[in-house]
Structure formats: C-alpha cells, structure tokens
Structure prediction request, 510 residues.
Amino acid sequence: MAKDRLTEVLERYEAVIGLEIHTELTSLNSKMFCGCPVEFGGEPNTRVCPVCLGMPGALPVPNEAAVEATVLAGLAVNCDIALWSQFHRKQYFYPDMPKDYQISQYDLPFCSGGYLDVEVEGDAVCERVDRSGDDEYTTRIGVTRIHLEEDTGKMVHVGGSEGRIAGAEKSLVDFNRAGTPLMELVTEPDIRTPEEARRFAQKLRLIIVTLGVSDCSMEEGSMRVDGNVSVRLRGQTELGTKSEIKNMNSFKALHDALAFEIVRQADMLDAGEQVVQETRHWDVGAKRTSSLRSKEEAHDYRYFPEPDMVPFAFTEQWVQSIADRLPELPDAMRERFMATWDLQKYDATVLTSDLAMAEFYEAAIAQAGAGRAKTVANVMINDLSAHLNAAGITMDESAVKPAMVAELVGLVDDGAISGKQAKAVFSEMVETGEMPSAIVEARGMKQVSDTGAIEAVVDAVLAANPDEVASYKEGKTSLVGWFVGQVMREMRGQGNPQVVNQVLKDKLGG
Ligand code: ADP
Ligand code: ZN
Ligand code: MG
Prediction:
C-alpha cells in the first residue's frame, strides 16, 4: 500500500488503536495447571495429561512460577498488583479447547493500570500530525491490565485452502500447547499510528525477554499481537467502531495490517458507509485484511469464578519480593550505557535493543578497555549488524566473538592495521572465526608505519610522475589524494595512511 495514502488519511482522520498481546511463558518448566512440559513442537499429543486434556474430574493446580512471572511483567510496565485476585472460567466451544472452557481471569486480574513510554521516530507516514517536524517523540501508552490464562491446543487444517476451516477436508488437533501459561496484556486505546503500535510491541517484547519469562517469538507464536483499530474525524471525541485484526506474525505485519485497516475504514467513511464491528484476518501475501466473523456471532462467555481454585491473596511484602527480582530494564540499561561509555543516544539504543547485543558489547569493552567504547560500538553497529542481517543469523549463531572485536579495534587503534584493512580482517573473521591477529599474521597484512620505508616509496612515486609533481606545485593540491593512491598501490595497501599523507606533504612542500 502506498505510504502517501496513510499520510493523507491521517491528515483528516485520527486512528485509535488498542493492542491485545498474548505471551506464552515459554521459559517455565511446566504448564499452567499441570506438570506437563512447556516446549515448542514435538510429536503431536505427547505432552499431555488428564488435566490439560480436560478429562472429567481432573483438578487444576496453579503454576506458582507463572503467577510470579505475570506479576513481574506487571511491575515492569508500572501496573498496580491486585492483592486479591482470582481465576474465572470462560465458556466457549471450540475443538482446540478440550474442557469447553478456558481458565482465565475476568474482573480480578493480577495487574492493572500500568503504562509504557514509547519512543517513536516521526517519519512522514507515522508521526502524529500535530508532531510534524519532530525527529522523535515519546508517547505514553496505558496498560489496562495483564492477566494469566491457559493457551489452547492447535488446529491443523488438512486439504482445501490453508489456514481456514472452510474448504479444509479435515481438521486435526494437537494438545501439546493446551494449558501452556499464557499472559495477556491489554492496552488502552492510546495508540495513534501503526508505527506507535509497532514500537509498543517491540518494546514490550524486549522487556519480557529481559525478564527471562518468554522467548517472545512472533514466528513461532509465543508472542501474538491482535490489533483493535478505529478511525474518527480529527476533532471528534467519541470513538469510532473498531475492527480487530488477528494473525499478524511479525512486527512488520502488525504495522502493515493496521495501516491497511486505517485506510480501509477511512475510505468507507468517505463513501458514506459505516464500519462494522468485526474480527478481521491479515493476509500477508495479499497484503489485505478480510472478515473472519462479525459481532453478530460474538460470544457470551458466561464467566464465573473457577470453583476448583481458591482466590489469591497476596501480601505487600510478597509483591515487594517480586519487585526486588526485577532486572535492569531496557530504558535503564540504555541510560547506563550512555553514562558509563559516553555513547550517543542512538548508539546506546541500538546496543540495548537486543539482550545478546548488549551482553556482547559489555564483554568486548571488558577486554578492549573503556577508552575504546566508541570504536567497539562502531564496529558492532556497522560491521557486525550488517553481517548478522546479511547472513540472517543471530548473535549467538555468528562466529564473531567479543574477544575478536576487542582485538580488532585494538589493532586499528595501535596503528598495526588501517581502517580499510580492518574491514578485510572483519570479513575473514566472519568466515573463519579466527582471531584478527592470526588473520593479520597469516595474510602479511601488517600496516607499514615505518617512515623510512614509506619515504622510499614516496620518492620513487614522485620521481616517476614529474608532470603531476609540477601540477601540484602550480597549485593543484587536490592531487595529493592521487599520490596517496599511487603510494598505497605500490605498498599493496599496507602503508599507514596518516604517515603516507604526512611524508607526501613534507616532500611536496605542501
Ligand atoms: P472488546 O469488548 O471488543 O473485547 P475491549 O473494550 O475489551 O473490547 O477492548 C479491547 C481492545 O480494544 C483494547 O486494547 C482497547 O483499548 C481497544 N479498543 C476499545 N475500543 C476501541 C475503539 N473504539 N477503537 C480502537 N480500539 C479500541
Ligand atoms: Zn498436562
Ligand atoms: Mg475484551
């Protein structure tokens, strides 16, 4: 979809977006109400027991670690923690739900009333119209609640059109996922653009990964984001009719689906039509949303308190003991990187946007020394990131280790190799996983900084090019770059550029 359509629409209409984000607590050893393991994949229906299969008479026992993880997440996004809370039964029939009800939370969730401040780049498509001109702004998104529930099983539709029950010949169900602890976070309708929604989801993901309770993989479905969106004319105060979009399995899909939906709704209103409240499905291939079900089919879940479990009564001291376990969160880590390593905000943001990246950086600094914090950051943000992107691999999968980056930066700093040679060493390091010093040694790449050796080459180059020397002396001083090139060619790129420049200028009398 053309960027300009969204920008044009957002000049007249204000988009209102609220997200519902489900996170499987994949780091826990066992399911929500039974002892079955929590693991992605596996032979279908091998990680099941009477409780997660919904056998009559099986009794649920709440997973304490899951409750703690949810409270930890609530504290990380500034929520109030309820001292009195409870599980409810949410009734509905669907084949992936063996009990015909899901144990969830209703009016007494563990966490409520939080917020997250999100930094957003104000590019032309995504900025709030009244913010135009700002490079970046911070917006506060309210967190309505976080509650805990159990995940459903997984349907596999065989034959017919993929992913849709209609047209499928048969549907199979795998209960391995059933009963996995699932945390649901609901935001206030405070989000105004697809970019803000993406930033919120990315920041929340980073926080939850930092808490160590989930791997938050959108591809594998351990983090699932539903987007509720409506539009209203700018200046209008009541909310428009919303649609809810499902099935977005990347941050880009979240952004694009919301953008599509905003334009679709605005077009309808422009045409004098009304938006219907419905659930829509994002089709990544076709880049459009389509209707899944409308409000007429909406469920009445008949919530009632789960009779097999007593309510939770937390003490202030217990909540405090969870708060004491909060690790350093991404914002605080970024501030610390800026203060400790004297980094620009941009560099610190990139380095703390990924836990593995941040750990790598600190390990590299520990070896390279604080004086090289900036150069280590440069190598990581430019060369290392480019390499990871190009290879489509994670930090852990790369052959590059912190000690290698530290050593490489040291070699350049000490003048042993040039910046250009460092690029070549980096490329080879990526391939072979060898230490930079070994590569430099094996390739005879040592930079020549010895003035005597350089002078000899400069003399020869000047003697061989009398016309250029004459032009230079007549004032065409830009020729110095050409001379540097000649000298470097003679030296097979191993001359120290600073020394070569200096010797040339001395000899040419520049
Ligand atoms: P529902 O009853 O359909 O589940 P909720 O009131 O529970 O709706 O809200 C679900 C999500 O939708 C929340 O994230 C909320 O912020 C968002 N939301 C509610 N109303 C609107 C609206 N008119 N436009 C956009 N988002 C909305
Ligand atoms: Zn089980
Ligand atoms: Mg709701």
